[in-house]
Design brief:
By secondary structure, the chain is an alpha/beta fold. The protein is built from 12 helices and 14 strands.
């Protein structure tokens, strides 16, 4: 038994040059001369036998996700680190009112702990059989500052990605959701890169009306796009409107990025409201949750596409047959991948140049997630540390824990 006796969560912050926000104040975009402070965090779980798991959050380390991790972290003390299914089940219930996003980082960390204790990779533990994963470049939001600021610049960046070896390219458009501008970009990409790259679009909920979503979808039909992702301001939560959209266009829809966990995604499949299904080990209750979703999709004969990049995504994808692409992003021609934190001390990278000439990225093969974190960087940039240790495990989990922070 590997009984957990210590959990530590460290928050840190670091600057990213030439990065700002769009006019709405939410989407990160190219902004020459600006500097944005990105906040993130890393979790470490230690067991009494000396084994230790680590996981650095991706996606900019959202504070809402961190709050959920801190909510349930004290309840790990005294538990067996190998009881991932039980922890998944208990923590899912404990966070049922807030979409469960705190479960994923803990579950991933426990998989890392197991792999390191056994001296094998998480990919091996999952039955991974692929050493290299086909990748697409996932572009950041469009800007008005000379980066991805118009259809020509988006298309030029897609050509740059094709030259690096990428097999696919996805663009997001602009937050004002102008369908004419989006359609013009679809046309430019299709005419110049159709047949060379698999092309995708992810408006990210920017399109404000069904009519606009339908117009954009029909433009994707004309240019043979590989998928059409989260178009509407419903934020990918309405089964009815996406089923209706599916009936009126040919391009496959990729939805459920914002629907958490295996059960709701099953409902989307049964409702025939999506073609591809999104899963994310960080937000869909960990590696345990992501693999459940992959197997659910396999049972229905559908493909699952993993959201985001990182060592957990690579481990999962290595063991999933019914999936097509690794998402490397968010990237742009003048800004590095600001989503992936710069804390790897082992050569691991999700930078734009991480893809090989074969259009693939490697699956880490070392113990656990197969990466080593730069703790000197983390400690130098630390802003807060939360430690949980020597606490008695008590039920019910709904009780508010006492958090020790320094």
């Amino acid at each position: 038994m590997a009984r957990i006796h210590r959990v530590e969560v460290t928050e840190y912050a670091y600057p990213v040059a030439n990065l700002g926000v769009d006019a709405e104040g939410f989407a990160r975009v190219h902004a020459p001369g600006s500097t944005t402070t990105m906040t993130n965090w890393i979790i470490a779980i230690e067991a009494e036998d000396g084994s230790r798991g680590e996981y650095a959050a991706q996606m900019g380390g959202k504070k809402a996700n961190l709050a959920q991790v801190l909510r349930v972290a004290p309840n790990l003390i005294g538990r067996d680190a190998d009881h991932r299914e039980l922890i998944y089940d208990d923590f899912k219930r404990a966070l049922q009112a807030v979409a469960h996003v705190g479960v994923g980082p803990i579950d991933i960390c426990l998989w890392d702990l197991l792999g390191k204790r056994l001296g094998v990779s998480v990919s091996t533990l999952l039955g991974g059989y692929r050493a290299r994963l086909p990748a697409y470049a996932s572009a950041m939001h469009g800007d008005r500052n000379g980066g991805l600021s118009d259809p020509e610049r988006v298309t030029a960046f897609a050509e740059q990605c094709a030259a690096l070896g990428y097999r696919g390219f996805k663009f997001r458009g602009w937050s004002d959701g102008n369908p004419r501008e989006t359609i013009a970009t679809i046309g430019a990409l299709g005419r110049r890169l159709g047949g060379k790259l698999d092309l995708m679009i992810d408006p990210g909920g920017d399109l404000r009306t069904f009519a606009a979503a339908l117009q954009v979808g029909r433009a994707c039909d004309e240019m043979g796009f590989f998928w059409y992702e989260d178009p509407l301001r419903d934020c990918g939560t309405s089964q009815f409107v996406h089923r209706k959209l599916r009936q009126m266009i040919r391009t496959p829809l990729l939805i459920t990025e914002h629907v958490r966990g295996v059960e709701p995604k099953a409902d989307w499949i049964v409702a025939e409201a999506t073609d591809f299904v999104r899963a994310d080990p960080e937000t869909d209750l960990g590696i345990t949750g992501a693999m459940k979703i992959a197997h659910l999709c396999e049972a229905f004969g559908l493909d699952v596409e993993l959201h985001g990049c990182g060592p957990a995504q690579r481990a999962c994808m290595s063991a999933i047959r019914n999936t097509n692409y690794y998402e490397l992003g968010l990237v742009g021609p003048k800004v590095g991948n600001f989503i992936s934190p710069p804390i790897y001390a082992c050569g691991y990278s999700d930078g734009l140049d991480a893809v090989g000439p074969d259009g693939c990225v490697p699956v880490p093969t070392g113990p656990g997630l197969g990466v080593a974190y730069d703790w000197d960087f983390v400690n130098k940039h630390a802003t807060a540390t939360h430690r949980f240790t020597n606490q008695v495990h008590k039920e019910p989990l709904q009780c508010e824990p006492a958090v020790s922070s320094s």
